[in-house]
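dude i think i finally got it to work??
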Amino acid sequence: MLLVADTLHKDPTSGQLFVFRNKKADKIRMLYWEGNGFWLLYKRNEKSRFIFPGISNDAIELSISQLQWLLSGLDFIQQEEPEKLYFSRFY
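look at this
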């Protein structure tokens, strides 16, 4: 929580999901505030590494699709977002 507030200058209780990785990129921790407490989720990739962009101090924002690709071990930067569909008529 202090890392989110002090380093990223974000509110850890904002409802955003914060994703962190270790140096080897084989472990991910996710922090999420749900009204009255934090969820701490942890995933360890047994046979490979999670694919992240180069290390920097900047935060990046992921879509839900990109998060799913990341957690599946895919390079979320190389994947294409599906086209959003908008409908005006419903039959």
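The chain has two helices and three strands.
im so relieved honestly
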